[in-house]
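so my prof wants the structure for this chain in the tokens format not the other one, which i didnt know existed until like an hour ago. anyway here's the sequence
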Amino acid sequence: MRILHTSDWHLGRAFHRVGMLGAQAAFIEHLVATVRERGVDAVVVSGDVYDRAVPPLAAVELFDDTLHRLAALGVPTVMISGNHDSARRLGVGAGLIGRAGVHLRTEPAACGTPVVLADEHGEVAFYGLPYLEPALVRDEFGVEKAAHEAVLAAAMDRVRADLAARAPGTRSVVLAHAFVTGGEPSDSERDITVGGVAAVPAGIFAGVDYVALGHLHGCQTITERIRYSGSPLPYSFSEAGHRKSMWLVDLGPGGALGAERIDCPVPRPLARLRGTLEELLADPALARHEEAWVEATLTDPVRPADPMARLTERFPHTLSLVFAPERADGDPETSYARRLADRSDQEIAEDFVAHVRGTGPDARERAVLRDAFDAVRADDTVREAV
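here's what i got, hopefully its the right format
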């Protein structure tokens, strides 16, 4: 069975205030053409269809058009909700839409109920595991601790139990929206840390033939059978080094697996430039970036006059301007920036406690801070879901 694996469309999202709806529509054209031209048997979309719980009308219209086009191809599609989606809204009409061959899986309780498709080698069971917010689904899965690993492990137990009851030789595909250990994040993904932990071990998915992951925006291979497709378009300059693509997976008899990357159309390349303003304006080696979307980091010790206006004369698509003056190591501003670099909310809060009273928090106080941050994230998730 030939499967096209994609995820993280983020319909409705902009790139540094540049509307991406046209680029997203071009990606859908590419997706439909790939399905038609490459003989795809099933499409899987591993979450974050929309960028937010209440998407703009134009994004909803594009999604509606996408559903109609996928259904018209006669190629089954399995789709789950991600942490950016409102599972309830995305799942509206799932029963009716499923009759057209587009199967929306947004209910955690249905993790162990697959969409079953067949080819000349037998049946393939597709299990959709939508994003599982631990605080909201712990009761459904009967776990003591509201943690990503616990709820995902319980969901996979249901998958394996259902698979064990099926005919020998039944192949299996799991769609999941999660941060799996070994994956490389970017600045584009929303933080899903709970209890100080965001990632889950790849071993949770043992026993299935292919795991189609969503959430991380870089296309990557965790193991031969566990892969992220990544987002089809860039949504932050941290993705400048990404090759945007989808996975074309051939699942043969006995679980034999082959995978090929299918490149996605990107409206412009990304470039992250660093140096003084005069260096960026004069360096002939930077000519290849003149039509790219540019993030410029200026290292001038004193902020130059009209930097954006001058930059856009050479790089008309400059979208982000960052000032990072080169300073001596002892400069207090440099020291403060270094203390904050790559630190989590929890670590910053613990540093603040130590700064105020002279000693850092003890184990009990760290737990209180962690619970407070988890409660805020869970509350944000609940507000977006309703």
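also thought this was worth mentioning. Residues 363-385 form the longest helix (23 residues).
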